[in-house]
Amino acid sequence: MALISCKDVSLGYEGSTVLENVNFDINKGDYICIVGENGSGKSTLVKGLLKLKAPLSGKITFGDDLKANEIGYLPQQNATQKDFPASVFEVVLSGRLNKMKFRPFYNSADKKDAMEKIKLMGIEDLVNQSFQELSGGQQQRVLLARALCATKKLLLLDEPASGLDPIVTNDLCTLIKDINKNYGITIVMVSHDIHTTARYSSHILHLGKRQLFFGKTDDYLNSDLGKKFTACVHTLHHHHG
What we know:
The protein is an alpha/beta fold. It is 41% helix and 24% strand. It is built from 10 helices and 9 strands. The protein has helices at 42-49, 79-82, 88-93, 97-100, 108-120, 136-150, 166-183, 194-200, 217-222, 224-240, and strands spanning 4-13, 16-26, 31-35, 57-62, 71-74, 154-158, 186-190, 203-207, 211-216. The strands form 2 sheets. It has a 6-stranded mixed β-sheet with strand order 5-6-7-3-8-9, with helices on both faces. It has a 3-stranded antiparallel β-sheet with strand order 2-1-4, covered by helices on one side. Helix 5 (108-120) crosses helix 6. It is globular.
């Protein structure tokens, strides 16, 4: 049974479809990258997978007892996040909120889990620092630790490397691959960096207001669409230096 299965899914807003004809399965252990131009429906699909947006038609079903609030979610970086007036430990700990149900306070298991994830991300030296004083790469590690406190099964990352320099991006991607490999956590990542993506992912989902491709990364890179997209992204990067 797939963790998440999309069957003939269309998503959008009242009276206007943003994305249609989506059919793919996310299986345990997959590392799926979602690519496409701006406005191709990537963010809309993310909202659908998180059950923040119901499909206009078709079905998104969850298997393996997965619940929407048990997806570790790393949203796009934005101003509000950067100004989080909390310590690294508090931010990571807040990932446990979905497990608390009706407990009013964090217990020792929550705190232990938060510390484990902090160590896993290699940020124990930052534990008492204020989140807003960290560099972009450090903030992403903190948010990744927080997302790992929320899930045992699936991480959904929306352009986690956006705005980070290439070295930090590479570190982050290696870290995410390790989580995928060593902890069996399924990764679904929206990415605009197809070259880094292709190195780490097992599958590519290419959107363009509908599903243009879904399959293994190698098959994608050998397809006409994949060749065209990687070449065109390459030229873009080249010009913008």
